[in-house]
Amino acid sequence: MNIVHLSEKYELNDLELQIVSYMKDHMNELKSIGIRQMAKDNYTSTSTIYKLCNKFGFEGYSDMIYHLTSTKDTSHDFHHRYHEYQSQFSQLLQDTSKRIVVFGLGFSAPIAEYMQQRLTLLNYQAMCVVHMEMFSQIFNKDTILIVISYSGKTPRLNEIVETAYQNQVPIISFIGNQDSPIFNYSSLPVLIGQYDSFSHDLNRKNTFFGESIIAFETLLFS
Predict the structure, then answer these.
(1) How does the average pLDDT of the chain come out, rounded?
(2) Is it the case that residue 169 has pLDDT exceeding 50?
(3) What is the pLDDT of residues 92-147, one digit of tens each?
């Protein structure tokens, strides 16, 4: 429960913030705490808590408590799936002073932008702009390249990755195709799903891009 985010999104007052903090602190016991008890513990009325439920978009107190206590945590499943990459991923990103270039083309571009902004908020020096000079031997100890590519066969992206590889710049790739140049050049290729050349058809589902974000978030906070 991100209290700061909830406060900003729903413009919570001090009392509402107090109630939300109370729920976070008593998450394990919420199912056994009735609305009257919650009101009493927070020196307020049940009507105040009902108003807070409505502000969050719930039909009532029971609806809110059910939502808070029944949300399935799938993080364990993803942690298990990407466990083999965790140690090397953490090692590569342990130095926050390094410059991280995150890059993708086509549908991968917004995924790269998401990763870049996420890293920036965590105090990394991350950018989505590629200058080939960054991958020269002069900067190879100060730069990390993260690329996102489903096929791993995009010529422009291959050129960037090959240059980084030749100059010993560490490369993390979120890649769908293990039979690709990018997979082979990567210091840490994070294989996402199973590559299907037919999924380039816009009428077929492609979960690669969504799962790349899930893999990134899982590795970032495991």
Answers:
(1) 88
(2) yes
(3) 999 888 999 999 999 999 999 999 999 999 999 999 988 877 777 777 788 999 99
SS (H, E, C) the chain: CCHHHHHHHHCCCHHHHHHHHHHHHCHHHHHHCCHHHHHHHCCCCHHHHHHHHHHCCCCCHHHHHHHHHHCCCCHHHHHHHCHHHHHHHHHHCCCCCCEEEEEECCCHHHHHHHHHHHHHHCCCEEECCCCHHHHCHHHCCCEEEEEEECCCCCHHHHHHHHHHHHCCCCEEEEECCCCCHHHHHCCEEEECCCCCHHHHCCCCCCCHHHHHHHHHHHHHHC
69: its two tokens:
């206590």
pTM confidence score: 0.69
Q: Poorest-confidence range of 65-74, 131-140, 152-161, 170-179?
A: 65-74
- C-alpha torsion 173→179→180→183, nearest 10: 20
Q: How far apart are CA 46 and CA 34, in angstroms?
A: 10
Collect all residues with Cβ–Cβ distance below 8 Å to 133 and sequence separation of at least 6.
139
